[in-house]
Amino acid sequence: GDLPRNIRILVTTRPEADIEKNLSNSPNVLMKRMDDITRDSTERDILTYIRTRLEDVSLDHSLLASRAEGIFQWAFVACEFILEDELATTMEELYDSIVSFGTTSGGASLVSLYQEVLTQIFAAASSPTALPRFRSVMTVILTAMEPISVESINLILSPSTVEVPRPFTEIDSHVVVRFMGSVLSGTDARD
Predict the structure, then answer these.
(1) Which end of the chain has fewer CB atoms within 10 angstroms, the N or the C?
(2) For the whole model, what pTM was predicted?
């Protein structure tokens, strides 16, 4: 049946040719490219997001927004990192570590943020198994031909399946993938 007139659906996607072709033929679809949105508008949206996400945290939201350099993903990762409660570090210390390292233009800024976040995570996880565990899980994910579940990763890395010596005997790959939500999908699901 027909939907009520007041129903609106928002779809975001990369500018893939087949998607654009199918959506552009519909008179009820308004397509807007990210390139058409002004930088000022994007920066205001990022600041609004940071203020909303960190509303209970007394930090310089404007400085954090300026460090994002117009990249929303940077702001998202930074906020999630600051709000992470399992790193045995205060929010202020996490904020300081993010705003203190130098920024560079475009994607390099995002790469630097990812490096900082991973450095902090592994520094906090002083266990000698953290980095080998991360490498093992990411090896399975990156070499999989199709999306793979956490349970499948666990099965692949179980000691009864793999006879390669590793620095750990049991692994729950969720301890790795739960921090990777910005680059992996399905990090909340177990199956």
Answers:
(1) N
(2) 0.54
Which among 70, 67, 68 is positioned nearest to 39, based on CA atoms? 70
**Phi, psi angle pair for 38, to nearest 5°:** -70, 150
Q: What angle do CA 97, 98, 100 make, to 5 degrees?
A: 65
Q: Is 132 helix (H, G, I), strand (E, B) or coil?
A: helix
Angle, CA of 177, 79 and 151, to the nearest 5°: 15
Alpha helices in 54-164 (DSSP H): 61-67, 72-83, 91-100, 107-124, 130-143, 150-156
Phi-psi region of 102 (alpha: psi -120 to 50; beta: other; left: phi over 0): beta
Per-residue pLDDT in tens (0 to 9) along the chain, 191 residues: 587 888 888 777 777 888 888 888 888 788 887 778 888 999 999 999 999 999 988 899 999 998 888 888 889 989 988 887 554 466 787 788 788 765 545 445 778 888 877 777 767 666 566 677 778 888 898 999 888 888 888 888 887 655 544 544 556 777 777 767 767 776 666 55
Instruction: Tell me which residue has tokens 């490219």.
Output: 33
Give the tokens for residue 9.
């659906």
